[in-house]
Amino acid sequence: MHLTHLECPRCGREHQADVLQNLCGCGSPLLARYDLAAVAATVAPEQFGLRPADLWRYRELLPVADPRCVTTLGEGWTPMWRAPAYGHEIGIADLIVKDEGLTPTGSFKARGASVGVSRARELGVERIAMPTNGNAGAAWATYAARAGMSATIAMPLAAPTICREECLAAGADLRLIDGLINDAGRDIAELIAGSDGRIFDAGTLREPYRLEGKKTMGYEIVEQLGWQVPDVIVYPTGGGVGLIGIHKALHELRELGWVEDRLPRLVAVQSTGCAPIVRAFAAGEDRVTPWTDARTVAFGITVPAPLGDELILSALRESAGTAIAVDDAEILTDLRDFAAREGLLLCPEGAACLTAARHLRAGGWIRPGERVVVLNTGAGLKYPGLVHSGAPG
């Protein structure tokens, strides 16, 4: 393992990586840092193709030293599907969908859970707790069970039913909250405060290693394109860990010398019913103002005030990217249109990225001939009824 330390991106303070850490004292999430020169001297890009087709193929760039602590269900190395029919319709000839719906537990959240649980296991954690919009809780409950840990998951009542059932099947202590994810977060904070350190806070960006699992999407996109970067990556953004992680991966790849200086423009996609990042980006602000009365059919991106707002906004601006909000009715229309043309049922968050790409191409932000990668972050089958539904009233 080449992990050296944890770094605060806000105040610059370094933290030890060999002890449990949550947020920096200044309130910022922490980022894992590696000896990338040592990684470059140890492994070459062509060697990854000889390894198993999962995210642990990138083990030199992940934070787990003891292979006995690796908790895995084969997550990662998801396919990249070309979408020529839908792409032709919207004017993006080179449109590619990275399909995270084929990951264990049915969403990209399994990546963060695998690495986060593995590192927590290595550092001696026995019980984790976290709030969730659904898929992350299902993933962390599943991987905690596999690692022999217990888990407490707080989830809004309105979250997809299948996520609730996944948590219960994994033996988690499930708390259903009449509210949004921030309300679930307050419930978990109270639980952890009264635990005398016996429960580890595994909430979004409250520990450093979920991000390390998510960043492997960035490594995979580049490797699957023959160690080339696309022009644009479109990502549905709630907590934003995946977008932050992809941005981190791209910078690590550039420092390793495995890609050229030109990096993709990142796009954060939100719903018009919950768009704090879009509003802050348009206003030139570094932090979001919490969104009131948040609601959208794309439940996974219903995050009124993401903890990683500074990191999301910084990633968008550093990459010359943008943030865009799309309407629920259009999300559902594009979900149906894409399935009819390409034969793949996306989750609503993934469909939101199609809507965003369509608008950005129509407005000229995405230029002719550019290669665009859209993230489908979960299986459409986890959202029964959406194909025949209209926008929520």
Automatic annotation (TrEMBL):
InterPro entries in the cross-refs: Ser/Thr_Dehydratase, Ser/Thr_deHydtase_PyrdxlP-BS, TrpB-like_PALP, TrpB-like_PALP_sf
Keywords for the protein's UniProt record, in alphabetical order: Lyase, Pyridoxal phosphate
Name listed for the protein in its UniProt record: Threonine synthase
TM ranges: none
UniProt GO MF annotations: threonine synthase activity
Any Pfam family: PALP
CDD domains xrefs: Thr-synth_1
Signal peptide: none
Lineage: Bacteria, Bacillati, Actinomycetota, Actinomycetes, Micromonosporales
